Amino acid sequence: MLKRVLLILGAMLAAWLAYELIIFPDVAVLAKERPKTTAFMEQRKKQLRKAGKSDELKWQWVSYGNISPNLRRGVLVAEDNSFYEHDGVDVEGMKEAFERNWKRRKLTHGGSTITQQLAKNLYLSPSRNPLRKVREYFIARSLEKHLTKKRILEIYLNVVEMGERVYGAEAASRHYFGKSASALTAREAALLAGCLPNPRVMSPGNPNRRLRARQRMILSRMRRWGVLLERDVLTEKKPAVETTTATSTTDTAATAPVTDPDMPPETETETETSTDTAPPQTDTTATEPPGATGSQPVDDPAEPPPATTTT
Fold first, then answer.
1. Residue 236 predicted with pLDDT over 70
2. Is residue 296 part of a domain?
3. How many Cα atoms within 13 Å fall on the side-chain side of residue 61?
4. How far apart are the C-alpha atoms of 67 and 298, rounded to whole Å?
């Protein structure tokens, strides 16, 4: 009897694995092609139609170079400060999230990396089902295998939800600020990055107290060490003819003081969603492109120079 049960369970497991292999997405095509839609967008359209409303969404694709460095850094310090160190899954982050959830006796933290969030947005659902988390894990690893970090971040910033019916950096920037994503200031970028955990509740169009607190937190982190998060993994390696050590400079988008009427600029008020541990500094060699600054969009941003963090 026991043997029969084990055989049945084994057959069911084999069938499930075969099914997963069949429906596993071909993420390699994303290296050259833009996603035409996402699972999250289609789910939202379905909800709107069910409610008898128009299913029109605001979404406009833009290239990586046309997204302000302010927003790129803001999203990194807010959502995944170890983005360049992990292979799609941050084991330490997941461990910390599990411990917080265990203490609170409810699922409030997912510990998901930007790559995991992209996998979920593109192919899965917001469900916290354990099987969905397993699929998310393998898709995230596949994304990291087939795409560069720059491409992963580019797709994520183009498809992530940033408000009711608003998806991606360009649509959000035009909807809330009436400008292109390339022109976002540090403060505007921090507001958009701050809404990501729950953009329908923390709407950039009508910021509540929690979103304002997250905005100040993100600005503080961007000033202190956000510039360290853009590294040479964001650009294609070019044949080295002659390399020179770049001199240390100050990135205006990441270090310039930002005045906030509600709070002194150097005060951080919220640490709920992620830890505030600066990434380790590394000695790198880079060549600064002529005329490039941290506040202007570029088509192929070079690696920023190492900066000295203060505690």
1. no
2. no
3. 9
4. 9
What whole-number distance in Å separates Cα of residue 157 and Cα of residue 296? 17
Burial (CB count <10 Å: 0-12, 13-18, 19+), residue 98: middle
Helices and strands (DSSP H and E) totals, the chain: 11, 2
Residue 255: other Cβ atoms inside 10 A: 17
Show the domain range for 135: 40-231+251-255
Whether this prediction's pTM lies above 0.70 is answered by: no
Q: Domain with 66 in it: what CATH number?
A: 1.10.3810.10
Please report which confidence band the pLDDT of residue 131 belongs to, taking 50, 70 and 90 as the band edges. confident
Q: Which H or E run contains 59?
A: strand 58-59
53 assigned to some structural domain: yes
Give CA–CA dist 149/134, Å, rounded. Answer: 22
pLDDT in tens, 145-185: 999 999 999 999 999 999 999 999 999 999 999 999 999 99
CB 254 within 8 A of CB 310: no
Residue partners of 296: CB distance under 8 A and separation at least 6: 69, 182
**Domain total of the chain:** 1
* Assigned domain for 261 exists: no
Distance between CA atoms of residues 202 and 27, nearest Å: 31
- Residue 219 in domain: yes
| Helix 69-79 vs helix 209-225: crossing angle, to nearest 10 | 110
Residue 7 in 3-state DSSP?
Answer: helix
